[in-house]
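Reviewers asked in the last cycle whether our approach scales beyond single polypeptides. To address this, we selected a multi-component target totalling 874 residues and predicted its structure end to end. The input consisted of the following lines:
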Amino acid sequence: MISFDLLINAIVAGVLLGGFYAAVSVGITISFGMLDIANIAQPAFILLGSYAAYIFNSAFHIDPILVGVVMTPIFFMIGIAVYRLYYYCFEMRNEQAIQGLAFFFGLLFVAEVSLILVFGVDYRFVEAPYIGPSLHFGMFDLPLRMLIPCVISLAMIGALQLYLSRSFIGRAILAVSQDGGALQLIAANPTRIKEIAFGISIATCALAGTFLIIIQPVEPSIGRDYIGRIFAICVLGGMTSFPGMVGAAMLIGVAESITATFYGPSWAPAVAFGFLLAVLAVRPAGLAGR
Amino acid sequence: MNGAPILAVNGLGKRFGGFVALENIALDVATGERLGLIGPNGSGKSTLVNCLCGTVHNETGTVTFAGQRIDRLAAHRRTRLGLARSFQLPKPFHTLSLIDNLRVPLLYAVNARPGHHLAAAEVEARCHALLREVGLGDKARRLPRDLTQVEMRKLELARAVATEPRLLFADEAMAGLSPAEVEEILAVLFRLNEGGITIVLIEHIMRAVMSFSTRLAVLVAGQKIADGRPEEVVRNPEVERAYLGE
Amino acid sequence: MRTSTFSIVAFAIGLAVIVFTRVFFTNEYFYFAAYVVLQYVVLSTAWNILGGYTGYINFGISAFFALGAYSTVVLHKLPELLHDTWNLTIPSIPMPVMILVGGIISGVIGLATGYLTLRLRGVFFAIATLAMAIVAQTLIVNWDYVGGSRGIYIIRPAMAPLGGGYIQYLYSLMVILAVMSVCIARWIERSQLGLGFAAIRDDEQAAEAGGVPTLRLKLIATTLSGALMGMAGAPLPYYVTYLDPTSSFSLAYAVNAVAMPVIGGMTSWIGPVIGSILLATIQQLATVTISSALNLLIVGLLLIAFVIIAPKGILGVVEAQQRRRATRLANLAARPAQ
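The resulting structure, written as structure tokens, was:
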């Protein structure tokens, strides 16, 4: 028995990590899964969220999560602007495939380099009362800096799920994800709906980025580690389903946490990719359905 | 019927998620025949063509072409065996000139058959001949975006014919065309059939189907409900009900 | 021009350039700068064989490139290893062999990645390559033999074959690699293979229906493209003399290798050549005056600008202008004489 304690703690930490991964991946599940826009620049927006939290926290000592909440509408507007640009430049000209991907790739890179130019490559972090202390339950620890992001993230995803299934626009978004043409039948403008959906997908980055910088110190290039992770989670979770996505996020969180505990943290980034390749190789039919 | 079946389909089934697109389809196509395949929108006609040509794979049943099981072969292998199709929405290679559009099947389908090796000059000559045959002879160097809708349909047909098939699926080759243009395409199809190509015509325009087909098969909701001589099939009460409603 | 004639002429020009520069240019900096420009000619041409010709986007350039570099590190240390473990004595391995091995390793990785993901829509391939770069980096970071995360110092041999300094030697090899990749790209473009690639890029279903074995062709493209990237990376340890995962897996390689063909034009071999010479030269000149981060920012912005404003690159702009002039002339000729 190689320390049962260690394993249990790794699993608990993994579940908490998974809750945070769900917050990071919910945006891509909307944009890639539902709208079919492969926004590989998503991690860049998450990092922007982290740095926004950092700026207001270090300058005015505002609680990072509060910053995240306040920034959400601003990120929503940024998302709408990005979608408009994407729509006029690529979707309308029917050039999504190559040019669209190159566009988001350029965006990812420009964001990273800009952050380096402004903040340098030093690690930045935020301060809050819940970073540090832990709750103890018998043999396992629940660090608050992991627990709080996990809980809020699940609440956020629950709220989004409710919004999508109950509100008119939410249901229209789900309809777009099934069939872009069908919407015209109910007199909704698919472009407008997609714009709002994409706005939401970017808006989630404000809080996701805040969680990121609460969990760990941040520097501009760590966004890249999240590309494999979020797409793996989205694909593994079945592309469009939030519950599936949360399950996949927990799975990858636990797998990474166990890997980090028993093989060392430097191996963790490879785990998500392993999952991604396995899913792509083993059940391509289930994914290529779209 | 004038010959042994070139294509034999047995118990073919295909579902997408929970939706049953095709169920237990049995269909024989005789060598040299002109079969019309009709059915309302969403009845599974295009899915059937996709299954037979390898664009999607069927879950149950068998497909035998010229005596060989083909239902697990990749699409390009079926093309090389002599099964060709045109697409419902023309899919030209839009960055290639018309002649290069035809060069693709000649080099990759015809030249890939054992015992065939056309020299470059001969490939070129055949491309030109095919373009002339469908009336695009003077546009060999143009790009597909310069074509009208009917010309696009002709290119789509020419590209399928360039694979030198034994059996051709013409999937709605006439949708959206004027009556005169429909006649043009029909004339091309008749000529191809006289040249020895078995043709399955998937079509909505009943007048065209009736004048072209020697036999008619009807798909409704993923099932074949009728198969026989055209004039008998259209009088079949089940077909009338499916087509015209109650 | 026939492919064989073109290749002979291209290699002759390459040799002439090598001789000319090495006779008349004595400034070491020239060779350092020219090496980088040529390395980007190889990288962007290699990327374009897959991206431009078949339409499949590879974002994992740095992985293929760095694996080539790290295979050289292994080969560099191989004589020592053999000596220590089995008391075998072999001479140090010549650079061309290292380039070849780097090419083979990256080619095999390209084949494997392609085999796992190319049956899916292209976007999955793009994402898989992006993630693959992270995994390759993770492997190298955890592999102490090649320096791990600390990196490794490589001492350049004091003597270079063919005389001159070692950097001149690396430069000469890179000229030959660049000429070779351009010849391969141009040959593909004019061959049956290139026609098949174009068919895949335009419409994969129609290509299959036309008898094109799409999966096999895509695998050929990823293997070839990966191999050339590996070859471009193989001399890197001797060029930089200190190799570490962060710099060798730098996203800068990926962005440049994507931006150069996009800016030059992706449908012809000349596009990546124009793009890489232009962009890499500007960067080499600009590093003297502005920081390298600012430099890369400009590349990223140029990439976005071109994708939006001139998606067919410089070549596309030139072609459009020629077409316009041709129609204007035709209109003039058609006007009845007064």
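Residues 21-226+235-244 of chain A form one domain. We regard this as preliminary and will revisit it once experimental data from Aim 1 are available.
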